[in-house]
Amino acid sequence: MTNYGKWDAFVATLSSSDEDEDEGADRGPAKEAETASKAADAGAKKGGYGWGKPLDERGQIDRSGELTVGNAKGNALSTNEAPQKVFQITEWAWTQSEDAVEVTLDVTRARNRCVSDVTRQRDFAQDMVRCTMRDAGVEVRVRDQAGAWELAFGLVDLPGIDPERCSFRLATSPVETASARPLQRVVLTLAKRRGGERWAGCGRARSFLPAGAEAAAPPVTVTRYSWSDAEDHATVYVTIPGVHLARPEDVRVRFRELSFDATCVVGGRTHRFAVTELPMEIQVDKSSHRVKENELRIRLKKWARCTWFKLQVHR
Q: Domain ranges in the chain?
């Protein structure tokens, strides 16, 4: 049987506290208020945030006034981190002829990940593309006008190219409908050092994240979500820019009888979302999730056919 008190305390402090939980803690109203007050004091000393506070219009935690119990407990643990400056271009393909290799980078999808944590809108305005060619490698940097974002791509361990004869150009893909936007691409033409040689592979993509960056970077608590209610299930729509480009094994959702949490690794950063106390029990083995464009959809199968007026409650 799930220990909901321990589970609630654990999820509520995912991004704001490293302190150990009291496994045998009494989760009554008086004890919960006392724990919340201590957590807030500890968070203030560490420069972090407490828990049990609603979000303001910017998606940040409201630190004014007393701790309040709202419908965002467990979801409102914003780290308020600045946007990640460098995003890696991961969508690319290559073809070859007798004398050259052509590498095509899909820049549009990488740009879609540059979302402002204030406006929640795409925030990339392209200003400059710089390409550096070397004998066994290539590096591409796409800069933003405001200097807030940078897209990066690199190849290493190439069989051998002639940097003096290599070039790059910007291109757009044809669109099938008038309403669709063309995908922006950077096309690299890499001249082979030895003409007529067939390459078995195009080197390997270089990572621009420092070693251990994923583990060292603080997790991002997702604050943008909506939900809908049906007679036998509820669906939660969690907004995570770029989640559809993540590997399937990097998207994980865990269900409990009265709670669930989601963890997604996107662009080297871990994104977390949790609801710590659902209104009614769910069927764990029949609940599921699926990934859509920039969105994680979580389907909660209800045990009882009834209406949910809130996604999260506090008993």
A: 4-81+218-301, 86-205
